[in-house]
Amino acid sequence: MRGGSVAVVGGSIAGCAAALAAYRGGAERVTVFERADARLRDRGVGIALHSDRYDELRDAGYVAPEMPWAPLTRRVWSVRDGEADHGRAIGEQPFFFRAYSWGSLWSELRRRVPEEVSYRSGSVVTGVEPDSDGVTLRLADGYREHFDVVIGADGYRSVVREAMFPGTDATYAGYVGWRGTSADVADLPSDGCDAHTVVFPGGHCMIYRIPDGAGGHLLNWVLYTAPPRTDGLHPDLRTPTSLPPGRLNSELTAHLRALVADNFPPYWAGRVLRTPAETTFIQPIYDLEVPRYASGRTVLVGDAASVARPHIGGGSVKALQDATALEAAWTAGDTWNEVLERYDAGRRPVGAAMVALARRMGSAQVENTPDWPAMGQAQFDAWWQDQNNGSDRRSGFGGHSIRVG
After folding, report:
1. What digits encode the pLDDT tens for the residues 108-149?
2. Global model pTM greater than 0.85
3. 107 Cβ contact list (under 8 Å, min separation 6)
4. Which site from 79, 123, 174, 402 is most exposed, i.e. has the minimal number of CB atoms within 10 Å?
5. CA-CA distances (angstroms) from residue 304 to 14, 27, 116, 263?
6. Under a CB-based contact definition with an 8 Å cutoff, are residues 198 and 207 in contact?
7. DSSP conformation class of 365
8. Minimal CA–CA distance to 401: which of 14, 46, 50?
9. What is the spatial order of strands in the sheet that 46-50 belongs to?
10. 2 pLDDT band (50/70/90 cuts)?
C-alpha cells in the first residue's frame, strides 16, 4: 500500500513511532499533531524495556544502542526489618532490563522521524470527523484538514478514540502511583544495577537508576498505593487525569511521606523523602480496552488503544510494537481496509492479554497484598507464579514477544 496522506494525533513516544511506521510503510504525506509545546517534552520519569523486547525492537529499527540507557540485572524485593538499613530481602529475581528516561527516549525517537514528516507542536485536535473516503481533523484554532487515514496516538484521554468509540474511557483502578526523580544516586547497592522494590501493606515502591540525558544518572521511583478516602486526601480520579508538580495538596503529600517514613527501610526512606518536591507528581492508575484497534479510516496505537497498569513492565514496549505491527500491515496490505484489518487482528488480542495480566499483578501487588514479612524466597516465587497463571507463552512480565509464533 503506497501513497496517501496520514495524520498522527499525538507526538510522544507512540506518536513518533507511528509516524515512522507510516513513513516506512509508504505513506506519501505524514503529519503529526502534538498538543504540547516542544519545551514541555523534558520528562524525567523512568521507562524500562525488557532486554529481549529491546532486541526485537532494535531489529525492527525503532530503538538503537546509542539511545542513553542504564543496565538492570536483578530485582530485589525488601520489607522493613526494624532499623536494618536496607531492610530484609524476601525475594530476588533475574531482571534483564534496559532503563531509560522518558524524555531522552522520546528525544531519540523524535530525532529519527524523517524531515519529510511534518511535526506540528502546539496543535490541539478538537474534532475527528470520518467520512466515506477518509477523516477530517478540526483544530482548536479553527483549522481543518482532510486525510486518508488518522492514527490516534494521543494517550489514554484520546480524542481519536472518543470519535471511534464514544464513551469508551479509561477506568480508574482505585490507586495511584506517586513518582519522583532525584540526583541522589551515590553509593547505590550493586553499583546501581539492581531494581529495588520496597513492599508494605497495601502497595509497593519500585526504585531504579535511569540516565539523566547528560551523561549521568538519576534515581527514579514510583510508589503504588490507594489514597485514603478522607476529605481533602482523595481527589476525584474517576475521570482520567494527572496531578503534576504544584497541584498536589499538602494533606496527600503528608500522608504519602508518613507512609514512607513508617514502612520503608531507613536507607530507602531517606532516598525517597529527600527527593525534591518539584520533581514528584501523582499518576492515577487506569485500565482501558477498546472493541477494535481500527475502525473505518481511523486506527489506534499505544495508550489510546489499551492501557495496561505499569506493573507489567511493558507499556512503552506495547506502543513501539504497535508501530512495528502497523508498518508490517502497511507493507503487506494492498488497500486501506486490508492494512487496518490486518493491524487490528494482530494487536487487539495482544492488548487484551496485557491488560488482563496487569490487572492480576495490580491486584496481587497493591489491592490485595500478601503478608510480606512472612515471605521467604520459596513463598515469593509461588506468589509471583500465581500472578502469571493464565498468561500465554508470548505475553508475560516485560511485554509481549513478537518473535514466538
Report:
1. 899 999 999 999 999 999 999 999 899 999 999 999 999 999
2. yes
3. 41, 213
4. 174
5. 9, 21, 25, 36
6. yes
7. I
8. 50
9. 46-50, 88-101, 70-79, 194-200, 203-211, 217-225, 171-182, 280-287
10. confident
